[in-house]
Design goal:
Layout lengths: L1 H18 L24 H11 L2 H6 L3 E2 L3 E2 L10 E4 L17 H7 L2 H18 L3 E2 L23 H17 L3 E7 L11 E4 L2 H8 L1 H10 L3 E4 L3 E2 L2 E2 L4 H11 L5 E3 L9 H6 L13 H9 L5 H17 L17 H14 L1 E5 L13 E5 L1 H4 L19 H9 L4 E5 L8 H9 L2 E7 L17 H13 L3 E6 L15 E4 L7 H9 L51 E4 L8 H6 L17 E8 L3 E2 L1 H5 L4 E9 L5 E10 L11 E10 L4 E8 L1 H4 L1 E3 L4 E3 L3 E10 L2 E10 L1
Parallel strand pairs: 3-4, 4-5, 5-7, 6-17, 7-10, 12-13, 12-14, 14-15, 15-16, 19-27
Antiparallel strand pairs: 1-2, 2-3, 8-9, 11-16, 18-20, 20-23, 21-22, 21-26, 24-25, 26-27
This protein binds alpha-D-glucopyranose.
Alpha-D-glucopyranose (GLC) binds next to loops.
Length: about 725
């Protein structure tokens, strides 16, 4: 009970913090059209220099700290307008009504690059309509443990999948003139105590697991902003970590945008500026004129240390057209039916059908006269996890409303809340007499949120309810509303059908009902491994024992106040053994494997062939590619989509490598009986690993297995490639 009180307090304070800003107080940004007096046909770098030369030191420093919780200050004298940010990856959280999308992990479960593009474009249109120029997303932190409170906000356990799906999202948002902010760099893989826990990670693990999604977002997505995380990484706060913000991000990856801090995450002045920090949010606590002036007077900083971040900001704002357009673009709606349709399309493809014994689903509307819908989650269906990613859904469609709408008037729908007590006799009878029973379980946005981690198990009363309903009705379907995998072992054998429904935004309930009744053929695939037992995860050996245990002390203010306590190390001792890399390498049987998801039709993969079966490593390092071609056929009776997944195995290597690694995927829609040929490109990065002895990526000569399947555990075809 006390935990709930703390969580509620945190949620209230996070909302209060956000609402404290102009943006969240329900105000609408005023139209404005302030443009600096420069020749806008000049290159962005040139205009940035022209403005920089005109700025006083005070004006420069003024630009390095935010205001109103979500804005970068204007410089009136030079007609530099205020630049507004908003959270974030599932929609425009601030500035009144917006379309609420499925959360990022649900977007990832679609494995559909086109949908990520459409979602990004739609969210960016609403940004432009509202006057927002910086979207504080997407988040791409790796799903290291199943109980991170913010797993819902990221794109799963595999760095290749997360990076590949971040690309279309970033390109679409930035195509609309809105800056994306890839976050939280780096190793913020738990919110248990995000200010205090020092992520201790070896170089190879960083390079192969925790950096790649960010590197892809920078190099192939072209993100113009990166947000540093709260936590220290290998002993240095991310916000002043030169290794992260300069050596890796800029020197190694060529990042040329700006680094924005997470909110209240600087701990000094000189460190961040020397490390590569450009902008302190939500306001300058450390990058203040007074502090900076003192350090300049002491010779610890020079004006050049200030010019660098200001130049990054100015150049990016000119480059993205922010300094050459009105604040708002009224050609776009702030929300609309069309936008909501994109949210629904994404939700439809996110749902993962995990179990469907005797083809209980899809339900046959003609044969169904009575459905029992049980559980509070059916009526109050969580649409997003708690915290800064949560978009207020206007008129959200709950699972119960979705079922009622899709089933139609001919079907009697009996809703039983069954929240705290056992079913009454009449409720039991209602369930027994129903043709099917749908039990909706999962977490609220208070129990699954930023600022703290979550429980591995479902709430006890929900697990008990599943068993109780399954005992009363043999045709029980469970819908799971959460951003992560959960414990299912204690009840799974008792139910014939299970759907992972994530947090699906404003249209989620409709999408769930459409899958239940078969108007949508599910095509989602798990972006993470679901285990039978908590202890099956290698990573939890190096994590906290009670992730959902909360304490006021650790949560003083939603962001935590590190000065009240000392830093604690969290060793990423599992190294590369994250998710399926561990389960497949160490032969641990998952409950449901990475990449898994059932369909109402069936598919056959065949005829895998490689454009070459032998190639010198030198040709790969020179940029040559290998084409892997596979035939896929819809062998069932109805149209559907399948995700062709390509994994690479390096059986012999000088350093130990995971059993397999995802290196390609494509989602394909096929009519019954239809076949298609899919070609996936393999390059140096498909075979290379990071040799931390040599400090570089290498691909070693030898035989590699190229494997194609529809999950990490269901490989249909293999081919051998010899690297010379
Ligand atoms: C929060 C989050 C970050 C968000 C920012 C602004 O603490 O960590 O993801 O964008 O503050 O709300």
């Amino acid at each position: 009970m006390f935990d709930q009180l703390i969580k509620q307090t945190v949620q209230n304070q996070m909302s209060a913090d956000a609402n404290s800003s102009f943006a969240m107080s329900g105000n609408r940004l005023e139209d404005s059209h302030i443009v600096p007096d420069v020749d806008h046909s000049l290159p962005a770098e040139k205009n940035a220099e022209i403005i920089l030369q005109q700025m006083t030191l005070e004006e420069k420093v003024n630009m390095l700290g935010g205001e109103d919780n979500l804005a970068i200050k204007a410089t009136e004298r030079l007609k530099l307008p205020k630049v507004w940010c908003s959270d974030a990856s599932a929609g425009v959280r601030c500035f009144q009504r917006a379309t609420a999308f499925p959360v990022p992990i649900a977007m990832a479960a679609t494995w559909n690059r086109n949908l990520l593009d459409q979602a990004g474009e739609t969210i960016a249109k609403e940004c432009r309509a509202k006057g927002v120029s910086i979207l504080l997303g997407p988040g791409v932190n790796i799903y290291r443990v199943p109980t991170c409170g913010r797993n819902f906000e990221y794109m799963g356990e595999d760095p290749f999948l997360a990076g590949e799906l971040a690309i279309p999202y970033i390109k679409a948002v930035q195509r609309m003139g809105v800056i994306t902010t890839v976050k939280h760099f780096a190793c913020n893989n738990s919110d248990y105590d995000r200010h205090r826990i020092n992520s201790k990670v070896d170089e190879r693990t960083l390079q192969e697991i925790y950096y790649p999604a960010f590197k892809t977002a920078v190099q192939r997505g072209g993100t113009k902003s990166v947000m540093s995380s709260y936590n220290p990484v290998n002993g240095s706060w991310a916000s002043e970590n030169h290794e992260l913000l300069t050596r890796i991000l800029r020197d190694e990856w060529g990042f040329d945008g700006f680094v924005i801090s997470d909110w209240i995450s600087l701990y000094s002045t000189e460190g961040p500026l020397k490390a590569g920090m450009d902008l302190e949010m939500p306001k300058a606590d450390f990058l203040t004129f007074k502090r900076i002036k003192e350090l300049i007077n002491k010779g610890r900083l020079t004006e050049k240390d200030i010019d660098r971040p200001v130049r990054n900001l100015l150049k990016t704002f000119f480059e993205m057209g922010i300094y050459n357009r009105p604040l708002k673009d009224h050609q776009y709606p702030e929300y609309s039916e069309e936008h909501s349709q994109v949210s629904l399309d994404t939700a439809r493809e996110a749902i993962v059908l995990l179990k469907n014994e005797n083809n209980l689903l899809p339900l046959n509307r003609e044969a169904i006269t009575r459905i029992a819908v049980v559980g509070k989650m059916a009526k109050e269906t969580t649409t997003c996890g708690g915290g800064s990613c949560c978009i207020k859904s206007f008129e959200p469609v709950s699972i119960l409303e979705g079922i009622r709408a899709v089933a139609g008037d001919s079907v009697e729908i009996n809703y039983i809340e069954a929240d705290l007590n056992r079913l009454t006799h009449s409720e039991q009878k209602m369930v027994e007499e129903a043709d099917v029973a749908v039990v909706a379980v999962g977490f609220t946005s208070q129990d699954e949120s930023e600022c703290y981690d979550k429980s591995w198990e479902l709430p006890y009363l929900q697990s008990r309810l599943i068993k109780e309903i399954a005992a009363l009705n043999s045709k029980t379907i469970v819908t799971l509303t959460t951003g992560t995998g959960v414990e299912t072992e204690s009840w799974l054998t008792q139910v014939p059908a299970l759907m992972h429904c994530f947090f699906l935004g404003e249209q989620g309930g409709k999408a769930v009902a459409e899958v239940l009744f078969g108007s949508v053929n599910p095509s989602g695939k798990l972006p993470f491994t679901m285990a039978k037992k908590w202890a099956d995860f290698e990573s939890v050996k190096y994590y906290v024992k009670k992730p959902d245990k909360i304490s006021v002390f650790r949560i003083i203010g939603p962001q935590g106040k590190p000065k009240f306590r000392r830093i604690r190390d969290m060793e990423y001792g599992e190294k590369l053994m994250v998710g399926y890399r561990h389960f497949d390498t160490n032969r641990v049987t998952p409950q449901f494997p990475f990449g898994f998801g059932l369909s109402f039709t069936s598919f056959e993969l065949s005829q895998l062939s490689l454009s070459e079966t032998s190639i010198p490593v030198s040709r790969l390092t020179e940029g040559d590619k290998i084409a892997a071609t596979i035939k896929i056929k819809n062998t069932g009776q109805r149209a559907g989509s399948e995700v062709v997944q390509l994994y690479v195995k390096d059986p012999e290597s000088s350093l130990p490598r995971p059993d397999k690694e995802l290196k390609g995927f494509e989602k394909v829609h096929l009519l019954p009986g239809e076949s298609k040929e899919i070609t996936l490109q393999l390059d140096f990065s498909s075979f290379a690993f990071f040799d931390d002895n040599k400090g570089q990526w290498i691909a070693e000569p030898g035989e590699f297995q190229v494997m194609v399947g529809n999950s990490s555990r269901n490989i249909a075809e293999k081919a051998i490639l010899k690297l010379g």
